Amino acid sequence: MADNFEYFRRVGSVRPSHLMFTTGVGALVDLPNFAVLVKGLDDWDLRKTPQMPIVEPRVLDAVQRILGKGVKDLQPAPWLEGMDSDPKGPASTVGVPVTPFPGWFRCTYCNLLAPLSGHAFEFQNINARRPHEARFVHAKCAKKGTARPLAVTARFVLSCTNGHLDEFPYREFVHQGASCPQVAYPRLQMEDRGGNLGADVKITCLNCSAERNIRDAMGARGQENLPPCRARHPHLAIFEPRGCVKEPKVIVVGASNQWFAETLSGLAVPPLAGSVLDALVEKHWAALEPLQPAMYPYGRSQVPAFKELLDWTDEQIAQAVERHRAELVGAVAEESDDSGVDLKEAEWQVFSGEQLPDPNSDFALYRDVDGVPKPLSGIYDDVIQAERLREVRALIGFTRLDAPDPEDRKLVPMAPMSRGKSDWIPASEVRGEGLFFKLPEDLLRDWEQRVQGSEAMARHQEAYGFYRRDRYSDRIVGPFDPMANWPGMRFYALHTLSHLLIRTIALECGYGSASLSERIYSADSDDGPRSGILIYTAVPDSEGTLGGLVSLAEPDQLVRLTRRALQDARNCSSDPLCAERLPIKDSDILHGAACHICLFVSETTCERGNKFLDRRFVVPLGDHPELALFPDLP
Prior knowledge:
The protein is an alpha+beta fold. It has helices spanning 18-21, 57-67, 170-174, 219-222, 273-283, 285-288, 296-302, 314-333, 344-352, 441-451, 455-472, 489-508, 555-569, 577-580, and strands at residues 28-30, 35-38, 73-75, 98-100, 104-107, 112-115, 121-124, 135-138, 150-153, 156-159, 165-167, 188-192, 201-205, 211-213, 232-233, 238-239, 249-252, 260-267, 364-366, 382-399, 424-438, 516-523, 530-537.
């Protein structure tokens, strides 16, 4: 809890994964009796925890490309064992710091509305073993009896698309932007009248009898009744000195748009040959940097560093030296550029390689000696069982009101997680298992030629252009390209097939669909085509490695699973409405024949928010069966 109050208590608990996706730095956490705000990294204390940083060079390198080379570590959430045995012991002082926010509370008996700083409310948390019972009470309420009435959070706050968050100005609002004519600090009352036509909350000044309904601050009409944004970051306890030009919006505590995580994730795959060479060049840079390529033969006999470079030719070493020199030049320029961040390239190279890497404690792959089952030879080019996987996730920032664009992080302003430059960021790791499906490149090329120029694909492309224009056009500097970062045609087919398999797998393997996740390896470039799907468990405990998923890669199981997925895709309870759906100009949707009944999965499972989905691109639907990737069942 905050240092400026007379308490320091544990008020709840969350999983480490929650700190990455739902309740991270700057997020409002809605507890049973009040809400708290997770404070910035400056206030986190990692000194009492024995945990070591999470090691994953590829993810750390991607983080440094975005946040700068000053980030040195990926740190897990602070935690210390012993809370169950000794709830008042050392473990009780370790955790993620939070502060009550909003700071305005309402008495549930007399409806008094006041800030915590006014000392009208007192904090109670008697039982250390029950942190969820932490609460505030109105100590001087007129209610008779010994039990003090509960005080709850006044649930309105202000936020803007630059990531700022602020208290709702109740005093100024009820007095039409002026001060109370009676006293400097008037006593207020909040009466929630309920209703089914939006918020119906009356604010009354008990000193001058002024009153106003919160509806006057809602929507487009209410915008003129709100003050300018004060550029406040309460999780950092600062106001940005340069101010803010964005208009604040009224949001309610618990609203889904108050916080969106900006994360990076990567699998701990073994390094490829090129990656090993790059690592050795970086290790021996002091010896290699002054040498010209013509001196490498001399170096092999006289320079000790070359003893570890015997497996590479002089040309390969020279190319690795130039790559590392270019990286150093970029670091000196101190430019934050995420254009080169592609955490999936190394993963695709490992999964699609002819020879699988040797297994280790983090990564183990297995390919059936008989290859893909014969009935599925036209559907899959390769199927690999990932018996062990480790995924590292790093939180690099967050946004408010607008979700970040995963393909262009500059379009939505990212709020800072610390007042200065932090040398670490929060991270978590999950271990699990998975199935990798590689589709035949010839199959996808032929399908792309069939759907190219079709009305259905044209509608999807047009919808993406409208979506990008409506959401981002006012933020893009320079020429506006409506099709920038479009995922490409094959992504629709791969993504749709992935969802079909996930929904079927969830019925077969024992995992819930929310415990599964996907990684789509898609590219239609001639320089590096990708055509793979990885479906894996993404839970932060041993439940993700029970073997129920990889067992579905056995030939008989795989054939039955695939047949069922494709068969189910041909019908939906919402047909014909679902089957006939195509994106339209004003609907702001980026899916076609897809809905919650047939294709949609949980937000934690889908990497693109249930966008870019259409059953007609996988199985025959309606009058255009030629659009289907798989016109016949296996």
